[in-house]
Amino acid sequence: MTNQVSEFPTERTFQYQHSLPPLPVPSLEGSLAKYLDAVRPFSTEEEYQVTAAVVKRFGEGIGKDLHQKLLQRARTRRNWLEEWWLDAAYLELRYPSQLNVNFGGPAPYLEHCWPPTEGVQLQRTSISMWHTLQYWDLLRTERLDPHKAGNVVLDMDQFRMLFCTCKIPGVTKDTIINYFKTESEGPCPSHVVVMCKGRFFSFDAVCDGYILTPPELLRQLTHVKQCCEGEPAGDGVAALTSEERTRWAKAREYLIGIDPANKTILEIIQSSLFVVSLDDAKPYATAENYTPVTREALTGDPTIRWGDKSYNSLSFADGTFGSNCDHAPYDAMVLVTHCYYVDQQLKATDGRWKGSETVRPMPLPEELVFTVDDRVRSDVAHAKQQYFETTQDLQVVCYAFTSFGKAAIKQRKLHPDTFIQLALQLAYYRQHGRLGSCYETAMTRRFYHGRTETMRPCTLEAQNWCHTMLLPAASAEAKRKALLLAFNKHNKLMAEAQNGKGFDRHLLGLYLIAKEEGLPMPDLFTDPLYSKSGGGGNFTLSTSLVGYTTVLGAVAPMVHHGYGFFYRIGDDRIVASCTAWKSSPETDAEALFQNLVSSLHEMLHLATTAQL
Question: Residue ranges of the Choline/carnitine acyltransferase domain (predicted)?
Fold first, then answer.
């Protein structure tokens, strides 16, 4: 996932797109067998027998027909899931997406050249913007090497969605609009939008064919800041993007209706490269405690970020940074790859600009002023109220575990990601006295337009290991044996999911065919164990390895009684963000992290006393 950038690349970023294999449809028997295996930890013997009978009937009856229809669909599409996934997982959802769907996170620069410092916000923002614009140029000119897993080429299509992309609300379903083009495809918008104190400004990031330098960007940002200093805050129209989707769609229609100029402003925001948010907050995070800046990235001021934008770059008054991104157009690895590139560039230059200080003559940023009336102001007030009520209910913690990291785990011949996942299962088991249904992201980018598959870490083997760990009479040998079985099962399931042999997306496809054809919903999807084991988006633990870089993100939990858990694994540290809803009496993100720490220590001790 590292950014290989070539001055004279032998491979272009998107050159392999047309040669990628289509997304396969797994066998029905295989998917149903895996599903039965996955529900077992959540059932009594009696419940399991009922579900087994339901699955048998499905496999011999309606499931067979639905599977044939799915195979038919796959014959005419290189990715049978793509359109469905976008609609079902993102665009048809009606609840507010800014907090429930978007991901956000802290920038890692505070760990080295940019510790929290006041008075440097604009200067640092101009430098980070410049590196981001260089990354856009790499994609425009296809100089970013295609990603590979070993020798296997991975799909790069999602990288087209990082810049010049926005979600548009609809009354029943949203849409995504993307203006990005490579140089060989044609012209691409090159303006950025800067938001400050509820106001919008825009300027072109390219002048006479050259990207603005940091001194030039600084001049533009200084102008924006000066316009807002000591002035009343703007109308905060951006807060509407944090609203329930249908309400936002209707508010947007009304906004366009009262003045056609409002439509032009919306189009400028939608087509912009990205949004820069100049925020007065001072989160003061540290390399050990990222909580303040992570919380701010997820739940900060809704009037200075455009919740539907694929990339909001958040600049805080204490010189720290974060981001907030719509999840619909791409998965987190796109932003992680970009942020890691910026992090590496800043490290290499010690966070300084060493080029020319000359500022060319160019137009100052233009303020974009929406025409509003009392109804719009009322809509904005309502949006802000519901947003603040929800954000105040979200508990966010983000800490670094510094006792060990990837190096120590690999030294014991164990997979670092599996290590964290099993530690999390044990932490949850210890805290809640039972196992939690768990979703881990598996990447399917080896297929055309592949995004993700569900990998379910809560296996029978994991359950047995957790149970053994808490048995006072269990010997170290018994614990080690159980751990090894859990490791092997997890690794096997992850490899299958990444190779298009998972079962969750397959079941979703069968469900959607039944729904589209107006058929009665098959019993498999209404059976209590379906949702109890996490099916239908009901996972108690929503987790993802963000990677082995310096970049981390965070998400809200998938269900009210659940947790959001993102983590990155460094050589000597593991940094994790954990979220929970305060209004759920069951959950506590702080306690889960502390239990995770205990689990990590126990597991390393277990793996050290006898190499597995």
Answer: 23-596
